């Protein structure tokens, strides 16, 4: 169990040999988890749709390695947002027996899980593996804006500019941690910045 | 019994106060001189006459003003009221529960008449007269949960039950003690309680969940929870914390009596008949320190509870900055005499 009880657990990818289709979303270093799981599984690879975005977490050059796997369908998307557009269209048309997988930074896993929820996929049925940085996706509880790739607390909300403390509380629906203003009781009195999520 | 509804505010000039009768019926949450988290759940049976638990749904002198405050909150932030699509049956269940209870126990203020699915609801304090078809959302000006809870004191959650867990899938939350419905919507029981310290480790939530999964129709339960609030502000939401948080710095020895409030939540849970969902109501009661100490037993006891509260709990309740000032003020109202067992005044 995670120390943060609202935070999902990402047990790691494994191949679901009973699935008829494999729908795989990978970001950055998540490519390595996909390769580790699917390499040498030609039958599964033939029934796999893989969406990959190199992402911001030092994911370099994995496109070629993924292409070399022999995956049935490979889509390389330039950003997480465009990867999600692809994924959503596949989820909308997914058939019974499709297994959803996600690998990459936590913010990306969260988006895949939230998207799965919207398409009626139970979150506990999604195979997930956290790879890459510990950066957090944080929703400002005040203005509701989401700041991506937060590596330190406190940080400045990229939308409303308040100084936010990252609370250890996670919303699966929003795919985000909660950011709460840290200095409203004493404006400007900020605790030391801690780089906790590199 | 006709209630004299007060004209008062919970923001800006903060004119809220309790009448002597409202003080007497305040649901004081401590039956001992110390406090620790516990699964303090009991059957929601009728309490003493005129007490906050005399009826399942308590309507009091603050009703009209509280409904006006809720309306203001929703105007500024509609995300305080949300419901996932599968909760619509539970919404109708809730409407029935509240309308039936309010009209049965406060017939001078509320009337419900039914002709099959054609219902007629009259709310005199708020000047509402509504005919509608039960089950047909198009016949009400708001979705059923929002419609009825804009007319009932207390925050409400509708909780779905599946996979041996409870899921917070709908709610209207405008007077919360610092938690966000928008953030917690869709979470299960363990998840939405994640930020609470200590209680997980001593197994409180495991036991509470097991108990609630077996909640039976017609056998509602209740518990009390508490925190403290500076100024009689109902909307102490995290959404607006950047606006009200500064209040915590304004407590001085001179203004404790008027500014510092004990905030008690009377939480009740009902199993609903059609949806099998659970209603979780969180009814907030506020009392100023100068009102509280008019009951000598409560003055002594609250002084001791607050003084001896474990730091971790005091921090979580947001009292750290002003706790000592309040304890010092309360000490003047504690002569050290023993207190009698139980919650009620002597």
Automatic annotation (TrEMBL), chain A:
Pfam families: DmmA-like_C (PF22289), DmmA-like_N (PF22290)
Family matches, as InterPro entries: DmmA-like_C (IPR048037), DmmA-like_N (IPR054582)
Example of a GO MF term: metal ion binding
UniProt keyword annotations, A-Z: 2Fe-2S, Flavoprotein, Iron, Iron-sulfur, Metal-binding, Oxidoreductase
Domain Dimethylamine monooxygenase subunit DmmA-like C-terminal: 137-180
Span of the signal peptide: none
Record has Iron-sulfur as a keyword: yes
Span of domain Dimethylamine monooxygenase subunit DmmA-like N-terminal: 3-126
Parts forming coiled coils: none
UniProt superkingdom: Bacteria
Protein name per its UniProtKB record: Uncharacterized protein
Source organism: Chenggangzhangella methanolivorans
Automatic annotation (TrEMBL), chain B:
Protein name as it appears in the record: DUF3445 domain-containing protein
Organism in which the protein naturally occurs: Chenggangzhangella methanolivorans
Taxonomic lineage of the native organism: Bacteria, Pseudomonadati, Pseudomonadota, Alphaproteobacteria, Hyphomicrobiales
